[in-house]
Design a protein that fits this description.
single chain, 491 residues, alpha+beta, Immunoglobulin-like, C8orf32 fold, 3 domains, eight-stranded mixed β-sheet, five-stranded mixed β-sheet, 8 helices, globular
Length: 491
């Protein structure tokens, strides 16, 4: 009986391991097809065929049992070409009419200017293990501009990924595929000045881990546009009189502080809507429209902040590839005052800055001790904000995904005068480790007479760590974040 029970447990454990190695789902096909027509319209066709493998893919919260299509009925027409589920036995179940629900997208609910935009929610039916959802739809757009950026990675594997773009002869098509050394996938391309096609086979799923590089650094990324004039904001060089009272109230004693105050106001008070430019017809709101509505896209907020800065007497303009950054002149120097976050610094545009964050501090400390039972005392070593904020509990013992690292060169030395008769009973610490081309760590804690000395140093020399070097990185960070408490006792 006991033997049978043990075997059952072993089989259950092996089954669990096997299931854990399976993806939640797998795309049999993902296809994007863009066709610019001679009449100045564009047809975007999307098709997906996805097989659901595990329960997490079937439930709605996992985003596989439902599909959401956002479009603007003012200049776009949505047509559902096919929507059905293929059961494991091969039978097809068409998606019923009541499974198509039109609603206002949540990201548009807080902005009246975007209340005409619609979201079609499709609740897929007949879902079970190893079923396949098929969805094919077309959006017909009254515009001839194509300007897209596709990150070619999904949260589950893709057997076949296709992208097709076709434009008439009067347009020129530009497409660029940026490959990635961290993502093992094979793509084939072909095209000319008016057409382009890309096929990718057996793409692995994207990485699920903390501290990843940006998507376009980590995964293959396709950007393309046709030869019509690209999205370029049209805004005047005037201020925004309606904001004058707010601007006056935000004025500070120094120009730099005033700019930062206005930047923070826009970041805090103008609700951000991250809607794709294509959905808005590659247009943007005026500064007044954004001011009155209290919401906008990154470009809208940049246009508004530039106008408010001009109202305050500064030279300011919108710039950047996506026209969502703000350049402002302070004492002949141009600063980046983009309102993406009030916590970001405002660097000088074009200034070469040190990539490595450097800190070197040495100071004497008057300690505060925690009193413990049995006559013991504890002193917590100060943890400076420093350059490295990675949490060890988010760095698994082994990892396939690359790690984005803050380059740093930190050194801290603390000297503590201990009260008479107080002795360190924690073991003295002396850690020295160096990893070629990656970095080094040093931690030293010792007592000499009545002086307690703590010296900690960390250097990280590579922005992205991958492969065998990950274990070395984790050892460096483990040593760096350990030994933060010193135990003492009176003689």
């Amino acid at each position: 009986m006991k033997r049978t029970f043990a075997i059952a447990l072993l089989l259950t454990a092996l089954a669990s391991t096997t299931i854990a190695q399976q993806p939640d789902a797998e795309y049999q096909l993902l296809r994007h097809r863009y066709t610019v027509n001679n009449d100045g319209t564009t047809d975007y066709n999307f098709r997906k065929e996805i097989t659901l493998i595990r329960n997490r893919a079937i439930t709605a919260y996992a985003d596989k049992g439902e599909t959401f299509i956002i479009y603007d009925p003012r200049f776009e027409t949505l047509t559902i070409n096919e929507s059905y589920t293929i059961r494991p036995d091969g039978s097809r179940v068409a998606t019923p009419e009541n499974a198509f629900v039109e609603q206002l997208p949540s990201q548009c609910a807080d902005c009246g200017r975007f209340n005409d935009i619609r979201e079609l929610a499709i609740i897929h039916t007949a879902l079970e293990y190893n079923c396949t959802i098929v969805l094919d739809y077309t959006i017909h757009r009254s515009a001839d501009l194509v300007n897209e950026r596709l990150v070619l990675a999904q949260d589950c594997p893709v057997k076949r990924y296709e992208v097709e773009i076709n434009v008439p002869e009067k347009y020129e098509l530009v497409a660029n595929l940026k490959r990635s050394p961290y993502f093992n996938a094979t793509f084939t391309e072909k095209g000319d000045a008016h057409s382009y096609s890309l096929t990718g086979l057996n793409l692995p799923q994207n990485f699920r881990a903390a501290y990843l590089p940006a998507d376009d650094e980590l995964y293959p990324t396709l950007t393309f546009y046709n030869g019509t004039p690209q999205f370029r904001p049209e805004f005047d060089n005037e201020g925004l009189p309606e904001s004058m009272l707010t601007v006056v109230n935000l004025m500070q004693d120094k120009p730099f502080h005033t700019v930062r105050s206005l930047r923070n106001f826009v970041a805090d008070n103008i609700h951000l809507n991250n809607l794709p430019p294509a959905l808005l017809g590659y247009t943007h709101a005026t500064a007044l429209q954004t001011w009155e509505s209290g919401c906008g896209t990154p470009t809208d907020r940049a246009v508004l902040l530039a106008a408010m800065l001009r109202t305050a007497g500064f030279e300011a303009t919108v710039y950047g590839d996506n026209y969502d950054r703000v350049a402002v002149t302070i004492d002949t120097l141009q600063y980046d005052a983009t309102p993406d976050s009030k916590t970001h610094r405002m660097p000088i545009i074009g200034e070469a800055h040190e990539a490595v964050n450097t800190k070197d501090q040495s100071r004497s400390i008057t300690p505060t001790f925690d009193t413990l039972e049995g006559g013991y005392y504890r002193w917590m070593v100060p943890i400076e904000k420093g350059c490295t904020h990675m949490k060890l509990d988010q760095l698994a013992p082994s990892r396939k995904a690359p790690v984005k690292v803050d380059l740093c060169n930190e050194h801290y030395k603390y000297t503590v005068d201990l009260p008479k008769g107080l002795k360190m009973i924690s073991p003295a610490v002396e850690i020295e480790e160096k990893c070629d081309s990656l970095g080094s760590v040093s931690v030293k804690i010792k007592q000499s007479g009545r002086k307690l000395t703590v010296e900690r140093s960390l250097t990280l020399e590579r922005e992205v760590v991958y492969g065998d070097d990950y274990a070395a990185l984790r050892r460096l960070l483990t040593a760096w974040q350990s030994h933060n408490a010193v135990l003492l006792k009176k003689k």
